[in-house]
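From the pipeline queue, job 12 of 40. The input is one protein chain; the requested action is below.

Action: predict structure.
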Amino acid sequence: MTIHPPSSFTGIPGQVSFDRRELQTILSVYGRMVAAGEWRDYGISSLRDSAIFSVFRRTAENPLYRIEKHPKLRNRQGMYAVVGMDGQILKRGADLKSVLRVLEKKLIRAVK
């Protein structure tokens, strides 16, 4: 695995953010959940040690899920995590697509 330094468009040096490929993957899941009527809003936070994509059912409430990127955990538990509303880590790993599968399970419903 090759580690690339953050490109110049990220803004503040030393700030963690999602790259274009990661955002494309996250927004793909987000778009399907919006189409299903489950989610309505999102927020992105870029901090010094992590980047967080928060998902909301309504604008003025706590996030349903947080998709977090912690590069320092890359060699331990994996740098991506999906955290529930109560702070419980639902899935953690090194591959973003496999971590986001825990959210796609919410789309599977029985058809009558």
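Job complete. The longest strand covers residues 41-46.
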